[in-house]
Design a protein that fits this description.
Structural class: alpha+beta
CATH class of the largest domain: Mainly Beta
Strand content: 25-35%
Radius of gyration: 17 Å
Shape: globular
Number of domains: 2
Largest sheet: 6 strands, antiparallel, barrel
Order of helices and strands: HEEEEHEEEEEEEEEEEH
Distance between the termini: 32 Å
Length: 264
Amino acid sequence: MKNIPSMLVVLGAIIVLMSQAATGSMSDVDNRIMGGDEVKPGEFPFLAALVVYVPEGNLQCGGSIIDDRHIITAAHCVFGSIKAEAKIGCHELSKCKHPFKIDRHWIHHEYKVARGQLFNDIAILRTKDSINFTDLIKPVRLPHRINDDYEIGNSLTVAGWGLMRDGETPTDIARKVDVEVKACPVTKQSESHLCAGSATKDSCQGDSGGPLFRTDKASKRSTIVGIVSTGPSCTGRGTGGQYTRVPHYLGWIESIKKESQATV
């Protein structure tokens, strides 16, 4: 039998994190684009803005379209949620009038909070209706293999509708910033994590669940490498954020997509 008290402790910790996310007060475990530029219409057509409803209120997260029914995001964005919806194909969120309803989500079975950080922070959402692809709405590519990501020193892009700095309201137009892949601190090293960013370029509150990706210059197609997970406060004092390494979860992603298709 599972240790029920331990499970309740973990559940309580996650609920606290979700509550903090709703008020924008998270610090080390942050649903944290600081710096960078506005995204042009249709530049990253796979971006999704999620509104997640939890008992304490609602919170904003990011996500990425991976096919005509599924969006990939961070597990902590939807853990304990009552319902969620996704705004896609919108350059300005305030003008996005018809969000897609989410009818089911899958959180990684080994998702947990421990030692002030999140592990296996990945989830897949299924939209109630199929997504019709256009010039403004297209899926992001998934990596081809488990070691398909960047080495330390390489540049990747992170994008989303989060805060530009602590204390502000989320931006209405998505922003992007190029960040450098770096070695994770010893206390946060894990084969399922990727670290990137700096004290002046990073994701911020409201960007959680959004993509860290590379874009092929010739085809203009983007491949998702990471998912915004945790990081220091976005005040300029931090040293970069921590991302869930998508290549590490390719098998899990495919298994969930098959399960989802079998239960539609």
